[in-house]
Write a structure and sequence with these properties.
The protein is α+β, with helices and mostly antiparallel strands. It has 2 helices and 4 strands. It has helices spanning 4-11, 34-48, and strands at residues 66-69, 86-91, 94-98, 101-102. A 4-stranded antiparallel beta sheet has the order 1-2-3-4, with no helix packed on it. A hairpin with a 2-residue loop joins strand 2 and strand 3. The longest helix is centred in the middle third of the chain and has 15 residues, at 34-48. The chain is globular.
Length: 104
């Protein structure tokens, strides 16, 4: 997973290595706070899917597919978000990706 959704939500810019035609700021709208973007891609997305009872937050009784990142995207400077790497992905209680390759 790339952190581009979070990057664009906060900085209103594409990733630093984006092709020239996609570089620059996306309009004059201000970006959201990092906390607001995290909520949008977790809790709010679950609500829109009518799945908030099962997904969207880490709570007892909810499904917990998750990723482990190499940095805390809630607290780093916004310009560093795009460089975030996924170290591990867990789906259905199984590790399906670990840095270095897919798991079998």
């Amino acid at each position: 997973m790339r952190s581009i959704a979070k990057t664009v939500g906060v900085t209103r810019k594409d990733r630093p290595d984006a092709p020239p035609k996609y570089s620059g700021r996306l309009g004059k709208d201000p970006g959201l706070s990092q906390a607001a973007v995290i909520q949008a891609i977790t809790l709010n997305a679950a609500y829109e899917l009518h799945e908030e009872r099962d997904i969207g937050s880490l709570e007892v009784g909810k499904l917990a597919d998750l990723i482990v990142l190499d940095r805390d995207v809630a607290t780093i400077p916004p310009e560093r978000i795009a460089g975030t790497k996924v170290l591990r992905t867990v789906v259905g209680g199984r590790v399906v990706y670990e840095e270095g390759g897919l798991q079998k």
